[in-house]
Amino acid sequence: MTKQPDIAHYAVSVVGKDRTGIVAGISEVLFRLGCNIADSSCTMLAGEFAMILIVSHPRPFSKGRLHDDLKPVCDSLGMSLAVRTLHADEIARQETDADICMISVYGADQPGIVYRVTRELAAIGVNIMDLNTKLIGTPEEPVYVMMLDAAIPEGQTPEGVEALLGDLKKELNVEIGVRLVTPVSL
Amino acid sequence: MAIQPILRYPHPVLKKLCRRVEVIDDSIHELITDLVDTMEAGPGSVGVAAPQVGVTLRVCVVDVTGNRHGRDNNHGRLLMINPEIVARTGSSFMREGCMSVPDYTGDVERATEVTVRFTEPDGSMREICASGFEAVAIQHEMDHLDGVLFLDRIVSIKTGLFRRKNYA
Less crowded by CB within 10 Å, the N or C end of chain B? Predict the structure, then answer.
């Protein structure tokens, strides 16, 4: 997302029971307001549809206006709404030269998988960029799957990160794999 | 010798079907020199296709010798006129980015091995069997000759969230 100083930016999140027409309903309001959807991520989580949008609008504009126009649609769709104003330094373009790894973690469901793994990653300076978890398997044998994209610190390798997670892997009895997915420029 | 600016989408040339080269004359040699110079100037670039510099001819250059994914398995600098893939096997995924579509990356499926036939700048025919990253690069550059961008081939909606300053 590019930085545009004369443009107001807002973080909008909408979550509620999935049904058809949610994206169309929300984006219609934004369109009529003259808002732009910059970066966004919307996905189905269990039966809920969750939208996170970075919305921009040429000034003058207000968070109140955005909220007030979205509220009736969210109410009619039975969805929660949150709007936050972003400051200029929050919308600056993120740049990295780091290697990107996909880290997969899966195994018998148990409390603390996300916490224990991400605490370890944070301790070695790994920055999570994208994270998905899903509970699969059967009620008798629930399996937890976590997939994340992360930037690893300079000098670190996927093998190195995997090795540093070795003890935790044994302790939790889960599978942990780290694969290089740094994009190639063609 | 001239580094050309890389055209970015939505420049219409990037979606055009390129014409075959019928005669290899000075203009083709000049084009190849430009493509090589432009490739060398791009940060970590391993290939450039003619439409990326605004020329709708079936010419591209590929060189993965300086790339960590390709340095141990390559055919050196490939200067390809009218390249054709005559055989392809296997399938693998790689997260690709493109100088013509900055700030976006995505997982693309490519053949792991391709046999490519092309004309060299001196007019001779050559056939190579490329694999690994070199095969990916060849397929990506050849796609440009058909007006196909990696965005047309993305199979996962996971996208790069961070703009890359350089590509390894």
Answer: N
